[in-house]
Design a protein that fits this description.
Homodimer. There is one protein chain. This protein is α+β, with helices and mostly antiparallel strands and 400 residues long. The protein is 32% helix and 26% strand. The protein folds into three domains: 86 residues, Rossmann fold (3-Layer(aba) Sandwich); 75 residues, 2-Layer Sandwich (Dna Ligase, domain 1), CATH 3.30.1490.20; 200 residues, 2-Layer Sandwich (D-amino Acid Aminotransferase, Chain A, domain 1), CATH 3.30.470. It is globular and about 60 Å long.
């Protein structure tokens, strides 16, 4: 790698924006490959190339102009990128094998099992000749309920279908399950059914690994969802009843995945903490993660800066976090589509991040707000106050 590598990011949304800002603060120019010229990351980038992610000609131009390629999303054509970069010194961080696993949740399931990382039991659709046979097998296998998931292209609640009572999976409920599966299979994705987990809470951990194998871990956090989309993050999870042993188990899982895949950069594991106090890994993201947005204000070195550091070969910064922290996503309300202005949050110790997206739509991530408190109670009150302000902001646009 050159001494002053040219950084490229495939993607131009909020994660690319926050990565770009961190890279430039370290003195690295950033070249963005964007879908639209008004995407969030474009205004802060040094150079922007507009094009679809399957355009071989434009991707070839982009890859020739950068030394290191980072990713905003795992939903990429790794085979296309590999063929373009064949014989070239281009560095993908993380590498394309890791991105492939990140893009395929069924591959992740197989990986977790191979590494003896506890996860829920699951069966894949491609083991059965007919979709109906697969759904019937899931009904028979998981009497306590199951979740159908697309292996590929699922995110923020998309690609998930819950069947809480298998005994009722007939008639319209059975048909809905079949339609869900057929939609994914029509896109070329496996569907799998996994046992429904009666969890007490959802947790996540962001970690970072450099090319030499050094790792740093951010605190285990509690996440809360709305309609399958991350809404609130509370830090550290230990202050909300999660033991040190559980945090250590999460770190061990992160280390196993990172070392097996040879990961470079920040990544995240999402977990279920069950009512029986067990930790089950749910999914893996081979990139910076929504649950780690709080690190921009709370950590000595954020997940974004550490990702850049790892990708360019710099030593990792400290992931130490002190105190009580929270993050709330600014999400579009249920009824309005159109332009929107940044909400004005009048809450102490709160820092707002607005992504500059041109159109508001239901549940779209428009920004986020980080906030701290001197104790658990103060943090929780501030999170409630921010949430109320955001509900009023949503109502304002709903009433237009």
């Amino acid at each position: 790698m050159t001494q002053n590598p040219r950084l490229g990011i495939l993607g131009s949304g909020q994660l690319a924006l926050l990565l770009t800002q961190s890279a430039r603060s370290l003195g690295y120019p950033v070249h963005i490959y964007a879908k639209h010229e008004d995407d969030p990351a474009c205004a802060d980038a040094d150079r922007v190339l507009i094009g679809p992610l399957d355009d071989r000609q434009r991707l070839t131009v982009f890859l020739k102009d950068v030394d290191v390629v980072m990713f905003e999303s795992e939903f990429i054509d790794t085979a296309l990128l590999a063929s373009i970069a064949e014989g070239e010194p281009t560095v993908f961080a993380p590498d394309l094998r890791a991105m492939d696993v990140g893009a395929d949740k069924w591959q992740q399931k197989q990986l977790f099992n191979s590494l003896s990382i506890a996860t829920s039991a699951a069966i894949p659709s491609d083991s059965y000749e007919a979709v109906a046979s697969f759904v019937d097998a899931a009904v028979a296998e998981f009497s306590g309920g199951f979740v159908l998931k697309w292996a590929r292209e699922g995110y923020d609640g998309i690609g998930v279908h819950v069947v809480p009572h298998p005994e009722d999976c007939h008639g319209a409920a059975h048909k809905a399950a079949l339609i869900f599966c057929e939609k994914a299979i029509g896109k070329g994705s496996v569907v799998y059914a996994e046992a429904f987990v009666p969890y007490e809470r959802e947790l996540a951990m962001v970690a970072c690994r450099d090319g030499a194998g050094n790792m740093t871990f951010y605190p285990l956090v509690e996440t809360q969802q709305k309609q399958g989309v991350c809404h609130t993050v509370k830090v550290p999870a230990s202050e909300w009843g999660v033991s040190r042993e559980i945090s250590e188990a999460a770190e061990a899982s992160c280390r196993k995945v990172a070392e097996h895949l040879g990961l470079v950069g920040s990544f995240a594991l999402e977990f279920f903490f069950t009512k029986s106090q067990d930790l089950l890994v749910n999914e893996f993201a081979p990139r910076v993660h929504n649950s780690g947005h709080y690190t921009s204000d709370a950590a000595v070195c954020s997940q974004f800066e550490n990702h850049v550091r790892a990708c360019v070969g710099q030593s990792l910064g400290s992931s130490k976090v002190e105190g009580y922290w929270g993050m709330i996503n600014v999400l579009g309300g249920p009824a309005y589509r159109g332009p929107a202005q940044e909400p004005k949050i009048q809450v102490a110790a709160a820092t707002s991040y607005w992504y500059g997206k041109k159109q508001l739509r239901p549940m779209r991530k428009m920004g986020h707000i980080n906030v701290s408190g001197v104790n658990k109670g103060e943090l929780e009150k501030r999170l409630v106050d921010i949430d109320k302000s955001l509900e009023q902001w949503q109502q304002h646009f709903k009433d237009k």
